[in-house]
């Protein structure tokens, strides 16, 4: 059993925070703070309209029991400590009997009644039948044995019986009478055994609070205090700088100097007020954790089994509540940015151009970066992204480069740093440009005022790739016309898997062929027919992260699924116009969440399925207006899960958002740059560039992410780099373009 430690409690620590007197019948609120029962009943701490008590220390609400405040748990730690101090002090002054009104000196204490007794009351206590068996100890004995000061806890149903057991199914303390009457037949254990099992929960929650909650709040308070100190120091430094400049000027600038100093003082006060407010809030939060920690630690350390079990649920509830609070501290809500900027050009005009006070409201934790340049890049091709600055309220922060300096470091895998250029757009954003010179993972650090932005350092994956504006000769050719393995008759679509293997739908040969990244034939599967695993002109193809291969079976009006080894594993779809049915399905693409988009060509729509064939949604219908389609051929998915469709007979590319709502379109019939003639295949690279197989223009066109024309390559013919009706397009792992050169019966890689 735990004992009361002399050094733990002093008369000051036993004072009620409300009345500032020694505690009398202390009651515990849900926040684990204690107050006198009468103080809680009389003090104006009742929350308006809540029927709850508002803790004067932490402002947490505690519902008032219907029976009244006296039902709230008593703080046995305080009552035991008060008893102990009374006994300890009995040598210095007279301790009066609490059992009679004679104010006689107490000589003993009844442990069961928790009363101090004079000698007459001791005799009476031992004569009365109800109390004659009570354990009475002298004050000298109590001073030597602190364990005996714990007040006994009696059963609420059988008031003469002390708690002796713990009922497992009822989750409550019981006495001997309870085991025979109210809890007869129930499983119960001894108090020590029950405490050992339940103390584990308390220890776990307490440990989490101590290790995970208190340190970050404590550190946050420290950081805010440090920033406030830095702010004051910086303000003083700026004042000194201003004064040093002012001393060199003539008397006419004194008034201007005072004006600037006043501005500095105002800024300091504004910022310090913000920091002081934040510090107060954080200290309040910290107090919640530390006070609860202290309470629980004291209970565990000084309480006996009964007392701990009595308070365990209250403690667990409070610890759960505190541990569930999400700590949203990011950084001090203000900074020490107060700079003096000297605009003086000549001594003659120094009075008006002595300088100005500049500050920064930029809150680094809310600043963000967007754009492909923070995710991916290509060797030799300029990458860029936008940094958007915000103040602590989330509003755009429009500042100059002096008050909001952005430091950018782009580190290549080899360890060296790339040059970069930062342009302030004047609208609260900055554009950053850099050009990778090697491939691999680059680390991109974005720092404002010495603090890393959220997400920094970013990992940028740079691939060799190609510059679409400088596409050279063919890197590799695969296949020729024929029916043997490795030969094609009208290859339609191409795709790569995670290992870089290339899959080709061999349209007329009714099969799928697989090649390694260097073009070596690995396998083919499928044959002409309508049975499982057979095709009537396979068209679109997609491979998911698990290697499952989906193939659109054109004239069988279905989609078939195959294992990575090419074994048939499933199918869905039949011919028809209803949702879930298909009419000459063409291109396929996987969404970011693993669902399958199908270009339902002759139904003039796009359908979305999950990989087991369950229909999710349909969008698009026959026409040439926004959101309408005419023979959609292939589909591709953007980084934000939007869908791009080659709208073949409308000679355009149509973009739908992830919910199937029309977003935009670009293109138009023709042979000029950016125009299309029956576009077929489509894919998107890591930077968002859109590659399109321009079928009847016998070329491949590349568009920027916003749909603006960027580059084109290829012309009609059967030579290297020439095409006859290019269809499907895809990308290798290193960014090269794969083209299904349909009527040349080959695949070309650039």
From TrEMBL:
What is the scientific name of the source organism? Stylophora pistillata
UniProt GO MF annotations: zinc ion binding
Q: Where are the Filamin repeats?
A: 359-462
* Ranges of residues in domain B box-type: 92-139, 150-191
Which protein is depicted? Answer: E3 ubiquitin-protein ligase TRIM71
In the UniProt record, what gene is named as encoding this protein?
trim71
Write out the entry's keywords from A to Z.
Coiled coil, Metal-binding, Repeat, Zinc, Zinc-finger
Q: Give start and end residues of every NHL repeat.
A: 477-518, 522-565, 569-612, 619-659, 663-706, 713-750
Domain of life, per the record?
Eukaryota
Ranges that cross the membrane: none
Q: Which residues form the RING-type domain?
A: 16-59
Q: Which InterPro entries match?
A: 6-blade_b-propeller_TolB-like, Filamin/ABP280_repeat-like, Filamin/ABP280_rpt, Ig-like_fold, Ig_E-set, NHL_repeat, TRIM45/56/19-like, Znf_B-box
Family the entry assigns: Belongs to the TRIM/RBCC family.
Q: Which residues form a coiled coil?
A: 250-277
Name the Pfam families on file: Filamin, NHL, zf-B_box, zf-C3HC4
């Amino acid at each position: 059993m735990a004992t009361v430690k002399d050094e733990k409690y002093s008369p000051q620590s036993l004072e009620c925070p409300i009345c500032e007197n020694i505690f009398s019948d202390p009651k515990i609120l849900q926040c684990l703070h204690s107050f006198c029962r009468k103080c809680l009943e009389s003090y104006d701490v009742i929350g308006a309209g809540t029927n709850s008590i508002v803790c004067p220390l932490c402002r947490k609400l505690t519902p008032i029991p219907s029976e009244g405040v006296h039902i709230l748990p008593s703080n046995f730690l305080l009552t035991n400590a008060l008893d102990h101090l009374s006994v300890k002090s009995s040598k210095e002054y007279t301790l009066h009997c609490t059992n009679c009104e004679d104010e006689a000196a107490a000589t003993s204490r009844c442990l069961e009644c928790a009363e101090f007794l004079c000698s007459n009351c001791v005799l009476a206590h031992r004569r009365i039948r109800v109390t004659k068996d009570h354990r009475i100890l002298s004050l000298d004995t109590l001073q030597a044995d602190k364990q005996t000061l714990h007040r006994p806890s009696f059963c609420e149903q059988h008031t003469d019986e002390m708690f002796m057991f713990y009922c497992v199914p009822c989750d409550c303390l019981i006495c001997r009478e309870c085991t025979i009457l109210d809890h007869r037949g129930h499983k119960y254990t001894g108090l020590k055994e029950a405490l050992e099992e339940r103390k584990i929960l308390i220890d776990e929650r307490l440990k989490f609070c101590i290790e995970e909650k208190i340190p970050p709040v404590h550190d946050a308070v420290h950081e805010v205090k440090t920033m406030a100190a830095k702010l004051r120091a910086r303000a003083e430094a700026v004042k000194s700088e201003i004064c040093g400049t002012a001393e060199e000027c003539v008397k006419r600038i004194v008034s201007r100097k005072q004006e600037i100093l006043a501005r500095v003082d105002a800024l300091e006060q504004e910022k310090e007020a913000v920091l002081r407010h934040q510090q107060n809030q954080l200290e309040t939060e910290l107090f919640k954790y530390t006070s609860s920690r202290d309470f629980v630690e004291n209970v565990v350390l000084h309480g006996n089994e009964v007392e701990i079990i009595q308070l365990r649920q209250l403690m667990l509830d409070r610890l759960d509540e505190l541990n569930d609070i999400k700590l949203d501290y990011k950084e001090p809500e203000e900074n020490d940015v107060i700079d003096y900027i000297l605009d003086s050009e000549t001594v003659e005009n120094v009075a008006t151009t002595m300088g100005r006070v500049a500050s920064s409201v930029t809150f680094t934790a809310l600043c963000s970066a967007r754009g492909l340049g923070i995710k991916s890049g290509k060797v030799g091709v300029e990458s860029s992204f936008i940094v958007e600055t915000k103040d602590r309220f989330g509003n755009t922060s429009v500042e100059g480069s002096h008050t909001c300096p952005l430091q950018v470091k782009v580190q290549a895998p080899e360890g060296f740093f790339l040059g970069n250029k930062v342009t302030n757009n004047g609208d609260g954003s900055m554009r950053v440009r850099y050009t990778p010179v090697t491939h691999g993972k680059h680390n991109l650090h974005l720092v404002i005022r010495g603090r890393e932005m959220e997400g920094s350092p970013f990992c940028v994956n740079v691939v060799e790739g190609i510059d679409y504006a400088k596409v050279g000769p063919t890197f590799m050719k695969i296949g020729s016309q024929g029916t043997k393995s490795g030969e094609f008759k009208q290859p339609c679509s191409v795709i790569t898997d995670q290992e870089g293997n290339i899959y080709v739908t061999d349209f007329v040969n009714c099969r799928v062929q697989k090649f390694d990244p260097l073009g070596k034939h690995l396998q083919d599967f499928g044959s002409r027919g309508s049975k499982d695993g057979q095709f009537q002109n396979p068209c679109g193809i997609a491979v998911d992260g698990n290697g499952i291969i989906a193939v659109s079976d054109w004239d069988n009006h279905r989609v078939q699924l195959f294992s990575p080894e090419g074994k048939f594993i499933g199918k869905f779809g039949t011919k028809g116009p209803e949702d879930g049915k298909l009419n000459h399905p063409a291109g396929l693409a996987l969404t970011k969440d693993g669902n399958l988009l199908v270009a339902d060509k002759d139904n003039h729509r796009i359908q979305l399925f999950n990989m087991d064939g369950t229909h999710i949604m349909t969008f698009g219908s026959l026409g040439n207006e926004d959101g309408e389609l005419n023979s959609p051929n292939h589909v591709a998915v953007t980084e934000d899960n939007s869908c791009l469709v080659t709208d073949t007979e409308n000679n355009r590319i149509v973009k739908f958002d992830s919910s199937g709502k029309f977003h935009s379109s670009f293109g138009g019939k023709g042979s000029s740059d950016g125009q299309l003639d029956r576009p077929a295949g489509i894919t998107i690279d890591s930077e968002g560039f859109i590659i399109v197989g321009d079928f009847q223009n016998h070329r491949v066109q590349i568009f920027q992410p916003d749909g603006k024309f960027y580059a084109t390559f290829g012309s009609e013919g059967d030579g290297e780099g020439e095409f006859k009706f290019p269809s499907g397009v895809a990308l290798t792992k290193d960014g090269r373009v794969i083209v299904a050169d349909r009527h040349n019966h080959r695949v070309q890689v650039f």
